[in-house]
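re: that chain from earlier
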Amino acid sequence: LDEFLDVPRFEAPEHLRTMRSYLRDKYTHRPPAVLVAAGEEALRFLAAHRGDLFTGVPLVFSAVGRTALRELEPLPADVIGIPLEFDFVGTVTQAMQWHPNARRLWIVTGAAGWDRLVESRLRREAKAFADRLTVEFLSALPAAELYERLGALQSDSIVFTPGFFQDGAGRNFIPRDSVEAMAAAAAAPLYGAYLTVLGTGAVGGSVSSFADAGREAGRATVQVLGGANPSSLALPETVPSMLHVDWRQVRRWKIDESAIP
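^ sequence. v structure.
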């Protein structure tokens, strides 16, 4: 069975309390043998409420980044998984090699709670480029204003975005759709945080595969269902990131083909 929290689109405390009551009532007499948390929001919810809802039920997480995981540590021994590598620094470093005239890095984030959480993480990581690029954030802008700003960028710019769930005017988005709209408007090459944005107009990025993350979680879940002690499993350290690019964007932005690994 799968349950959908619908977070961060609905992230008010009232919604989370309703979900907690619903899950407790539904599974009181038929508790699961193992839980799988798909994504950071699900893991945060279960980390906070598993003791009330599913006492003693082992938990396998999937598609959770290293940074988010560190914020939740220490986790109990029966909470296991393989973190994703969201390689913001690697993506921007690669972009700088492909666009040697770049002097400005524009990072775009949104207004939802999740968007602001990701923004705070990116602000910390962006310090790695302080001596090489002027880093500027376009955060929580109304979509129309954002597209106008992106369309006016100069040739010395590159853009990075994880996409966003909500713009500054309160309009809701699916992050992939927000990336597609930004890429269409931008006068500079745009790089993304996830493999799922390939094909939207983003050049690409050093990204992990959600499919690979799901397969790894599936293997771990099968072993736990087979009776293995979660803490005894030898799991990979991470779902590694790999460079992915859209060849159409390579041509559009005149990236030297010989510079692509």
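The longest strand covers residues 104-109.
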